[in-house]
Amino acid sequence: MILKKALAILFTVSQILLTFSSTSLAGMDDASNNTAFVYDDDFSGYATGSDGMPNWVTNGFSWVINDGYFKNDLVKKSFALLNSPTGAEVSFESEVMIKASNGDKYKIAGIAVYTDYENYWHLALVESPDKNNHYVELEEMINGKWCAQYKGSTKLETGTVQPGSLHWDYNHPYLLKITLNELSITGALYELDGSLIWKKKYLFKPDNCVKTGIPSLTTAAFEAQFDNVKVNITKTVAGENPNTSLDDIKVTNTKITPEELFIKVGQTRKLEALIIPTNASNKKINWTSDNPQIASVNDGVVKGLSPGTVFIRVSTEDQSISDTCKVTVTSFSVYLFVGLYVLIVGIIALLIFRYIRKKEKT
Asked: CA-to-CA distance for 29 and 55, rounded, in angstroms?
């Protein structure tokens, strides 16, 4: 009788614990859903010389990871886009250090919220052409119009401003941080110990401005390096409103891996295409070969048909974004010829060696 009561009590307690744990787990799931995308990168897990793929997609060949830093020294303005959803609420920071300047024009290095090459915000360290003026800026590009937040119908209200005294230095690391939401964007510059140096905020009034984008790194005419990137996207474009159409979430970049391929006649290899952003509404892509007689391609699978060089292209459905891979096809007979040649030369060399040794003994 006592045993039955004990078992009944144990069963009741078990049910209560199960109910409690289920409720707690559900609460944890709800809390985790508040964060759409979280990413940290200290650039320590890449092979030396990596371009950051697949986590980063660059539009400049000079982006490279070395010594635990993501580096770039291209004179032309270029971006390294994070492989992330398009964010509507974004907190994004990175350490930035400028090593040297390249050129005699305005030079920048910093972080950006990027929609496309003609629409973005950037927070950057800047050097004037005479190299005497070092400052920081939070600027907007709309439809190719620079400093749009100051001009005409796209002029925005200014919020918090803390200019402070600033003359940034070479070979000194700074922390740059952008915070963007549906109402405003804030850019801030810190020392690595957390001391605030500079801060500026724009209110999205009027709202014809860049309000969403992909976290990105950017440089122009500086030799700069980036470290300790932290991204928290709490709302994606798709998450703004369940009834929002996704037709305007456009592909901003695509990248083929590998960038170059060597195959033999008759061989096949699969190419991969990375689409940026990951939540683009139309991810349909087309594969084409500029010489199907040398190599064909079907859904990314390349087949070597005859010796030669060919470029395989992947493009979005509207042909606006594309990338290429150079494919070199070689005939098996070439390898056979080289192999036989090496074998024959080796046999001749061995015979000569034996002949010489025999002569020496006699």
From this structure: 26
